[in-house]
Amino acid sequence: MLLGNREETGLSKPSELLQGTLDMLVLKILALDPLNGWAVSQRLKQMSSDVLGVSDGSLYPALHKLEQRGWITAEWKLSENNRRSKFYSLTRLGRKQLEKEAADWNRLSAAISGIVKLKEA
Amino acid sequence: MTFEEWLYTLPLRLRSLFRRKQADRELSDELRDHLERQIKENLAAGMSSANAHYSALRTLGGITQIEQQCRDARGGNFMENLAQDLRYGFRQLYRSPGFSALAILCLTLGIGANTAVFSWIEGILFRPYPAVAHQERLLALAGTARGETGATGISWPDFLDLQRSCTLCEEFFVSKITGSTLNIGERAEVTRGSIVSANYFDAIGVHPILGRGFEPGEDTGSDAHPVAVISYQLWRNRFKGDPQIVGKMQRLNNVPHTIIGVAPEGFYGTFVGWAMHFWVPASMEETFESGGYKLEDRDARWIEAYVRLKPGVTRAQAQGEISAIAARLEAGYPATNRGRGIRLWPLWQTPFNNAGTLLPTLEIMLAVVAFVLLIACANVGNLLLVRSFARRREMTVRLAIGASRPRLLKQLFTEGLILSTLGAACGLLVAFWCRHALVLLLPARSGVAMYLPGEIDWRVMLLSAGICLIATLIVGLVPAFQTRDIDLAGALKADSSAVVGARGKAWVRSGLVVFQVCLSFVLLVGAVLLLQSLQKIRTASPGFSTNGVVQTGVSLISAGYDVPQARTFQKELIDRVRALPGVQSAAFARLTPLGYGTYSSTPIAVDGYQLPPEEQPSVDYNQVSPDYFATLGIPLLSGREFSATDDENAPLVAIVNQTMAARYWRDQNPIDRRLQVKGRWVRVVGVAADSKYESMRESPKPFFYVPLLQDFARSPALYIRTAQPLQSVSAAVLREVHALDGNLALYETITLQEQVDRSTSPQLVAVTLVSILGGLALLLAAVGLYGVMSYAVAQSTRELGLRMALGAGAVTLFRLVISRGLRLTAGGVLCGATAGLVVTRLFGKLLYDVSPNDPLAFASAVAVMTITSVAACLLPAWRATRTDPARVLRD
C-alpha cells in the first residue's frame, strides 16, 4: 500500500515502446559501473546512438523509482575535479531484476522480430 | 516484500517521511550538478555562456516538474495523503454530528464491551495476582482421586516430597485460605487470611514493606511459630498505619501472634476473588484448621498449592515428572495414597478459588461481546452506507476529475478508522469504569472482601487495538463496496438530488439488518435460557428445606477449646438453643451443604457387594448430630436418625443416602448391613433421601452421614429450624453462646436459602451480564432496523404519494411499511434460530435443567424480537402515512 499511488502519478514516458525498458537500460548501464545521473544520461545517449531519445527529464524520476524499489542504491561521492555527485550502483536485487528483465526482453524481441520477418503471402 | 527489499527501501522511506527537507535539498543538488556538467560540456563544445545555459535547461526539461515526479517516485506521498484524508475525514464527520455521534456510540458500546471482558479475563483469569512475579509460569497444584473428576487437597508430607524431588519447577508454595475473628480495640470482625509455607513471600517475589516475611523452618512443628504478616489495608485501616507495628501481638483465633511484617500495597494474596488480610505459617495450621495436627499426616489432604515452572518448561513436561513422583508416593504409601494423583492446572482453571467458578461465565461473555461488536459494526456500516449514497455525487466528481479508485477507498477507510479509533478510545474509558463491576454482581457476604479487578494492561490495549482495526475493516468495507461500480457518465448526468442506485443496493442494507437481527436473536435466546435456568435453579429443591432454617456456628478451635471441652460446650449449647422460644429443632454438622469446605472422603467396602476389579470406590460423608435430618428437612426413607446415644462409646453407625443404597445394596434393605469407613466397620441404621451436597448442578451421588459424636469436629455449623426472623434468632443464639463463654463469636448467621443463593451466584452473574448485553444488542438491532425503514420510506415518497393519490388509505401504507420491516425480521429470526441451535450449546455449562434448544426460550425470543421490530418500524410507518400526495405529485 505504501507505493499504492504509483499508478496515478505516471512517470513521463519517452515513447510507447520504451515503457519499462528504460528501467532495464538504466540497470544495465549501472551494472557495468557506478555512475552519477549525468554520466548515466551520457552513456544512454552514446550506447543507443541517440535513437531512443531518452530525455534527461525522464531519467531522474526513473532513477529515483529504481532506488525506491531497492534495485539501485545512491551515495554522495567526490568525482573528478572535487565535485560532489550522487553516484548510483546496482544492488543484488537490482542484478536479479536486470537478469529477469533482460530475459523477458530477449523473449519479446525474438517474438516480435519473428513476426516482422514473416513474408507476406 | 522480502526482507532484503525492506533492508534497502526502509531507510529511504523513513527518510522521505521524517527528513523531507534534506531529501528535497539533495534532489535539487543532484539536478543542479547535472545542469552544471551539461553547461560545462556545452561550453567545451563552443557555445556562448548564455546559450550553453539555455540549452542545458532545455535538455533537462522543467526542473520543478522533474522534482515533483521524483518526489512522487519516492513514495513519501503516502503520509501526505493520509494527513489530507484525516483532515478531510474529520471535517466530514464534524459536518454531520448526529451521524458521527451515533456511529461512535455504537462502536463505543461494541469495543467497550469487548475491552471490559478482556480486562476481566486478564485480571481474573490470566494475571490474577498483580504483585506476584512471573505469573505466566505459575500453575495451581491440586490432588486427584481415581474415579473422581474434581480436585482434592494435597497432604503436607506429599507436598514436601514433591518439593524435594521435582526438578522442573522453580518454586513450590502453599496458600490455603482460612479465616479468623480479629478483635482490635472495640471492633470485632471476621477476616480472611492464608496458611502458607515458609517460602511463600520469597517464592512469589513480594517483599514486606515493614518487617520480614517467614523464615525457613517457621512452617514446621505443632503451633510452634505464632507469627503473622498482615496486609497493607489491614495495617492502614485497623492499625492506623502504626509504624511500630512489627513486634506487636495480635490474637488470631485466640492465639497471640507476633506481627512480623506488613505486605506491600496492592498485594491481595493469592486467592482469586477474595482479598486476603493476614498470612500465617503452616505450623499454625491447628489453630486455624479443624482436624488436629496434620503436618505429618499423609491422609489429611488439606493444602492448596502453586508451583512456578523453570523457564522454558512446559506444563506437560512438569505434569509428567509430578505424575511420576505421585506414582512413587502411591507405591511407597499404599495405605494413604492408593488411587491418588497430583495434577497441575493453569491459573485460569484453578480448582480451589473463584477462577474456576467464573471461567464458564467469562467464556460465554467472550462470545457474547463478539456478537455485540459485530452488531455494532453492522449498524455503523449501515449508517455509512446510507451516507455513501448521499456522497455518491461527491465520489463521482472526484473520480471524474482524476482521483484513482484506490485513493477513494483509502479515503473511506480513513473515515472508518477515525470512527473506530474514537469508538475504541471511548470504549477504553467504558472498560476502565467497568473494570471493578464484576464484584457488584456478586452477592456480598460478611467477612469477605471481594476483589475481582479487571486489568487494563498492554495486552488488553493491544487486543482492543486489534478489535478496532477489525471494526475499521468491517465498517469501511461496506461503503467501499459501493464505489466499485460507479457509472461516471450516468451519475454525472443524473439529477443531482436523486440518489443513484439506491434501489439496486437496498439488499446490502437489508442484508446487514437481517444479520443484526440474527445475532441479537441468538443473544436473546441465550439470555432467556440463562434466565430460565436461574429460575429453575433458584426454585429447585436442594433436597433439604431452605425456608425457616437458619445457619450459623461457633468456632471453638479459635477459642482454644480442646476436644473434651468442645464436646461439653456443644452439648450445653444445643440444649439451650432447643429451649429458645420458636425453635422447633437444632443440629450440628461439620460441613454445610453447598459451602466452600471439602467433605471428608473415604474408600469404602460393603458387605456382600463384590467390587469390580481395579475399583476402590471413595465416598464423601458428613459428620452430623442428632436431629440433623429433621432440622434440615431431609426425609428419612427408612431406619432412624442418629440419637444422643450414638456417642463415642457406642457401636459405630451410619446413615446412607438413597443413591448409595441403590448402588451398593441393590434391591435389598441396607439397614443393619455393614459398611467399612476408614478401615472400620460401621452399621447402617438409616436411609436418607438424596440432596445436593456441593453444587446445585451435581447429579445424585452416593453420600453418607456419621454421628458427629463418633467423628468429632470442634467447629461445626449450627442449624436451627425456627419460625422467628433471622435477626432475633441471631441475637438469641449469641446471648446463649455468651452465657456459656463471653469470649466466643458467632459465624455469619444466614438463612439456608441465602446459602443456596450464594452457591448459584455464578449463574446470577452470567444472567445479569448476558441480559445487559442482550438488551444492548436488541437496541442496536432496533436502531439498525429503524434506520433502514426510515430511509426506505424517505426514498419512496413518490411511490407512497402515488399510491395515496390512487386511493390507498393510511392503514394500507402503514401496513405496507410494517410488513416490510417484519419481513426483514423474519429473515433474521430464521437465520438466528438456525445458528442458535448450534451456538446455545456454549451455554450448556451454566444451564441447569434447561435444554440449550428449549423451545420456550426460542419462542419467547421470537416474541421479543417481533415486538421490538414493530416498535422500530412504527415511526417510519407513521411517517409514510403522512405523505402528502399533492406535494409529491407537484414535485
Describe the structure.
The complex is a heterodimer of chains A (121) and B (891). The model of chain A is unreliable at 1-17 (pLDDT under 50). By secondary structure, chain A is α+β, with helices and mostly antiparallel strands. Chain A contains 5 helices and 3 strands; from the N terminus they run ααβααββα. Chain A has helices at residues 6-9, 21-32, 37-47, 56-68, 92-116; strands at 35-36, 72-78, 84-90. Chain A has a 3-stranded antiparallel beta sheet with strand order 1-3-2. In chain A, a hairpin with a 5-residue loop joins strand 2 (72-78) and strand 3 (84-90). Helix content of chain B is 52%, strand content 15%. Chain B is built from 29 helices and 23 strands. In chain B, the strands form 4 sheets. In chain B, strands 1, 2, 3, 4, 5, 6, 7, 9, 10 and 11 form a 10-stranded mixed beta sheet that branches. In chain B, a hairpin with a 2-residue loop joins strand 2 (169-184) and strand 3. The model of chain B is unreliable at 495-504 (pLDDT under 50). The chains are: A alpha+beta (121), B alpha+beta (891). Chain A binds chain B through residues 1-9, 11-12, 36-38, 41, 55-57, 60-62, 64-65, 67-70, 73, 76, 83-86, 91-93, and chain B through 4-5, 7-9, 12-13, 26-27, 29-31, 33-34, 36-38, 59-62, 65-66, 69-70, 72-75, 77-78, 81, 402-404, 406-407, 410.
